[in-house]
Amino acid sequence: TAGAVALLMAAAPARGAGWEVAARGGLKVSDGKPANDIESTGVVLRWRMDELWSLQLGAQRLVFDAERPAALIGLNQDPNVEAIDAKAKATAISVGLRRDHPWAGSKWSGFWSLDLGTASPKVPSVSGPLDGGGSFAVSTRAKREWIASASAGLRYAFDSRWALEGALHVDHHQANWRLADSVSGRSGKVGAYQAAGLWIGVAARFD
Asked: If the chain, 207 residues long, is cut into consecutive pieces of 10 residues, what is the mean pLDDT of each piece?
């Protein structure tokens, strides 16, 4: 009947709807407080609502040097010793919205996305000599931080399933790091910071 047909049409998925998974890696740079560069690898799962709009869930591993923790609390490391950084790691989980912009008659298309994520960095303690004598032993307690991200990029479709994509992105990290030196008793903190970079990945669709 006409009513049944209308109901089936309403329940049918929109054109272009389906699942997509992407693996990607990237590098972003910051101003050195607390990091100069941040490496990332991760996966993104997308639900394509139609040919243009997608919801996405991402997980990525972040690896970076927390630059000179002693300097962050006003201590001068011995200049004759190589800079002592803390090898930090974090796992970030994010949710976001993506908008694709197909180019008529082309395998190329553009896209942008907005994401909100969270991470809890793990920053090891570091120690070393001070300029003029003495030593430092700095520990860092990094609380959960929130990450707002915006990306804009290009996508090249090899066929109906596989695609290569890359994007420029900017991140705002709302952070709260507390640093303390057990030798001198000095302390300090790191608040919000920004980072920008590039990621490249391969995506596969499952309609």
From this structure: 46 74 96 90 96 96 94 93 94 98 94 97 95 94 96 96 97 95 94 96 92
| DSSP string of 54-69, one letter each residue | EEEEEEEEEEEEE--H
Please enumerate in sequence order all residues whose Cβ is within 8 A of that of 71, keeping only pairs 6 or more positions apart, or say none: 77
Nearest to 185, CA basis, from 142, 149, 150, 137: 137
4 secondary structure, DSSP code:
H
* Gap between the terminal Cα atoms of the chain: 28
Contact indicator for 153, 191 with CB cutoff of 8 Å: no
Q: Are 99 and 111 in contact (CB under 8 A)?
A: yes
Report yes or no: 93 and 117 within 8 Å, Cβ to Cβ: yes
138: its two tokens: 């700095």
- Residues 155, 145: Cα–Cα separation, whole Å: 30
